[in-house]
């Protein structure tokens, strides 16, 4: 563990900043998961509002919420982005675009900030470092909406698939379901965050830990913000007439493993991949589009404009400087030419003078 | 009523009818509607205690996800104590599973109306069969996702449309995902929404009902939507083998009324309201369809330029009605017994 903490020693005091997004249809346990993770009512449960409103399709609302956590003495400044309304409409095509739009606009902010001449030292990085996608516990395989969403979002964010409300699945059903989901993910070439490791470069512990986490994918999550009494102990869980399920019991749910991976062991890795890989890809795509005068579809955000403008400005500057250099070169060359000509002329004059002198001397001698 | 002076014996007509009916057998057609993965096939198999339909879930990764709602019918004959039941189970795989689910309910509504239409056609034939094969849907089980929140907009739209043409019984699928409090809150919320949208669900009120029947119907209406759990596998509870599910923290007994409402649903469908479901389909839904159609025919014969009915008007034909300007039921439908 030391090698991993090594780089963070300086940051431990300052704390970490981490942003993750939760996406899934209503009823898959998103909100409860977040509240269980933070051990407090961070997100409000879906309010049973008017039955008269239910048929109105509100579309998707993207809401970031900030909370401070203390994880083993390390301060984490956590931002959680909830997406209520996803998958609840009859036509869910727009939901995807909104989420992708949100992710890209965070990248645009960074891009604009990087290109500013005078940067803001207190700039807040709002990029989403991980996206937890909640799969409904059907027991079959991925649905079309699951495949589409993960496919479209994985170029922009680390996608971690999660089975929400996994309490109703028997152990056998869960095993088969997980296997089928992973088969689907491979079949459809969906690049999810699968705890990457290099068997040659990384040490044994890392390899072991990452491959173990990989076999747990997708994490089977049970969340609860209520406490129940089980065998005399008070634990977080859900009470059914036939038994009680405990959130923190690794035999019941993968919640604890996911939490430690997300907030502790793999937090840095997720951030690095977001910055070094996902953001860089987006940046390259975006800039090559701007330079080639590619189509700027969709609403041009301020950051967007600024980013492209500052790029253009920079290029203008470069061009002007090049021109100046060229001018200077030309001028210098001209001067050299003139000087040379002068020199030649002077030499001519000198020679003719010498000739006349020689002729004059000859005349005198004779 | 006139008084009798001696025993006549016409009270045996009930046995005479029974004898005839037993020979003929009974026909029951049930449709299941809901997103994939809600346990529709398992529930039907649990209700009728036999493996009647296969799950249509996608289990192989190279199998592509369905892009539309398809209708599949399976027929079985089951027998109990000399009573033969011809069962048709109509499944609707692909419903509500796409990103864009606009109009995914249309094939379902069309199928239901096609069955009414086929029956009407046979009825209006000059030389018709003695006993018309009844392929009309007597009951539609509508499966709700156990989200614990509220009905989805698509559920509301489809429930409205379905309740106009068929007896709809909504059920909360896989209800072992909800604690008892969540279940109660969910049910109440659903009931509020159903009332708000004026969705008429079976059982309907009727003046013919006596007090006992009315009380029974009230209690059924109270329970709706039924929170059910299905299972075809057995688990051991108190030394006995019962149908249930064993998960990591407990054993769910499907037939235990404290665990879920399966028993109530099963009794409702098979032990108390089976005959009524068949009758109301004929007397209420079919009649409504029939009168609309016949009025449309009358109008179209009086004014040739009048707009057509919702369903293409039927022209009575002589002999066997095989070819006509009608939409016939989908090719995978009604097996002929």
From TrEMBL, chain A:
Checking CDD domains in the record gives: CDC_Septin
Q: State the Gene Ontology terms under molecular function.
A: GTP binding
Might you report a single GO cellular component term? cell cortex
> Which positions are tagged coiled coil?
311-363
Ranges of residues in domain Septin-type G: 14-289
User: Record's Pfam families?
Assistant: Septin (PF00735)
Question: Which SUPFAM superfamilies is this protein grouped with?
Answer: P-loop containing nucleoside triphosphate hydrolases
Sorted keywords for this record are:
Coiled coil, GTP-binding, Nucleotide-binding
PANTHER family recorded for this chain? SEPTIN (PTHR18884)
What's the protein name? Answer: Septin-type G domain-containing protein
Which organism does this sequence originate in?
Umbelopsis ramanniana AG
From TrEMBL, chain B:
Q: Which InterPro entries match?
A: G_SEPTIN_dom (IPR030379), P-loop_NTPase (IPR027417), Septin (IPR016491)
Residue ranges constituting the Septin-type G domain according to the UniProt record:
24-296
Annotated stretches, region: Disordered:
300-337
Write out the entry's keywords from A to Z. Cell cycle, Cell division, GTP-binding, Nucleotide-binding
For this record, the Gene Ontology CC terms, alphabetical, are: cleavage apparatus septin structure
Span of the secretion signal?
A: none
CDD domains associated with the record: CDC_Septin (cd01850)
A GO molecular function assigned to this protein is: GTP binding
Question: Mind telling me which SUPFAM superfamilies this protein's record contains?
Answer: P-loop containing nucleoside triphosphate hydrolases
What Pfam families does this protein's entry cite?
Answer: Septin (PF00735)
Q: Which GO terms describe its biological process?
A: cell division; septin ring assembly; sporulation
This protein's record includes keyword Transferase:
no
Q: Where is the composition biased (Low complexity)?
A: 321-337
Q: Which family does it belong to?
A: Belongs to the TRAFAC class TrmE-Era-EngA-EngB-Septin-like GTPase superfamily. Septin GTPase family.
Q: What is this protein called?
A: Septin-type G domain-containing protein
């Amino acid at each position: 563990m030391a090698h991993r903490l090594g780089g963070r020693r300086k940051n431990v005091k300052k704390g970490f900043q981490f942003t993750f997004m939760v996406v899934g249809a209503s009823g898959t346990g998103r909100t409860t998961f977040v509240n269980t993770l933070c051990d407090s009512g961070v997100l409000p449960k879906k309010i049973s509002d008017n039955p008269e409103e239910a048929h109105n399709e509100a579309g998707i609302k993207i809401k970031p919420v900030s909370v401070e956590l203390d994880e083993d003495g390390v301060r984490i400044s956590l931002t959680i982005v909830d997406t209520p309304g996803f998958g609840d409409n009859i036509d869910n095509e727009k939901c995807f675009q909104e989420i992708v739009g949100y992710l890209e606009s965070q990248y645009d902010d960074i891009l604009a900030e990087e290109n500013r001449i005078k940067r803001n030292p207190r700039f807040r990085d709002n990029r989403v470092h991980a996206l937890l996608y909640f799969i409904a516990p059907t027991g079959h395989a991925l649905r079309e909406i699951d495949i589409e969403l993960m496919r479209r979002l994985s170029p922009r964010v680390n996608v971690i698939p999660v089975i929400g409300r996994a309490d109703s699945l028997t152990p056998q059903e869960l095993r088969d379901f997980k296997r089928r989901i992973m088969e689907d993910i491979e079949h459809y070439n969906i690049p999810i965050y699968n705890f990457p490791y290099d068997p040659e470069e990384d040490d044994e512990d890392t390899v072991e830990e990452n491959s173990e986490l990989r076999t747990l994918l997708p994490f089977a999550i049970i969340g609860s913000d209520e406490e129940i009494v089980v065998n005399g102990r008070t634990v977080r869980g859900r009470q059914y007439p036939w038994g009680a399920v405990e959130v923190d019991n690794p035999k019941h749910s993968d919640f604890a493993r996911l939490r430690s991976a997300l907030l502790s062991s793999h937090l840095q890795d997720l951030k690095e991949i977001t910055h070094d890989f996902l953001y860089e890809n987006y940046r390259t795509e975006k800039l090559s589009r701007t330079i080639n005068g590619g189509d700027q579809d969709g609403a041009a955000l301020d950051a967007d404009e600024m980013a492209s403008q500052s790029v253009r400005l920079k290029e203008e500057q470069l061009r002007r400087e090049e021109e100046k250099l060229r001018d200077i070169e030309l001028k210098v060359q001209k001067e050299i030419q003139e000087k040379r000509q002068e020199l030649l002329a002077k030499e001519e004059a000198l020679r003719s003078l010498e000739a006349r002198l020689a002729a004059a001397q000859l005349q005198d001698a004779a | 009523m006139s008084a009798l002076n001696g025993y006549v014996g016409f009270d045996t007509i009930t046995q005479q009818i029974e004898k005839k009916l037993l020979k003929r057998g009974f026909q029951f057609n049930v449709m299941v509607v809901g997103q994939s993965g809600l346990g529709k096939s398992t529930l039907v198999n649990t209700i009728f205690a036999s493996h009647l339909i296969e799950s249509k879930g996608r289990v192989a990764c190279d199998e592509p996800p369905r892009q539309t709602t398809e209708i599949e019918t399976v027929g079985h004959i089951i027998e109990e104590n000399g009573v033969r039941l011809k069962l048709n189970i109509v499944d609707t795989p692909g419903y509500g599973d796409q990103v864009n689910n606009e109009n995914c309910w249309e094939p379902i509504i069309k199928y239901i109306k096609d069955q009414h239409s086929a029956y009407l056609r046979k009825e209006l034939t000059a030389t018709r069969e003695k006993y018309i094969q009844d392929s009309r849907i007597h009951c539609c089980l509508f499966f709700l996702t156990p989200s614990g929140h509220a009905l989805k907009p698509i559920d509301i739209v489809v429930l409205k449309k379905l309740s106009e043409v068929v007896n709809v019984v909504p059920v909360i699928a896989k209800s072992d995902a909800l604690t008892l409090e969540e279940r109660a809150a969910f049910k109440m919320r659903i009931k509020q929404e159903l009332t708000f949208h004026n969705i008429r669900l079976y059982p309907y009120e009727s003046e013919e009902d006596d007090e006992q029947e009315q009380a029974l119907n009230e209690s059924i209406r109270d329970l709706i939507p039924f929170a059910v759990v299905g299972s075809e596998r057995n688990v051991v509870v108190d030394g006995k083998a019962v149908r249930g599910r064993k998960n990591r923290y407990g054993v769910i007994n499907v037939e235990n009324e404290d665990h879920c409402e399966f028993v109530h649903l099963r009794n409702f469908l098979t032990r108390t309201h089976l005959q009524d479901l068949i009758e109301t389909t004929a007397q209420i839904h079919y009649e409504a369809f029939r009168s609309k159609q016949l009025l449309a025919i009358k109008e179209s014969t009086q004014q040739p330029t009048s707009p057509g009915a919702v369903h293409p008007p039927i022209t009575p034909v002589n002999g066997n009605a095989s070819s006509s300007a009608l939409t016939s039921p989908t090719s995978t439908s009604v097996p002929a017994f």
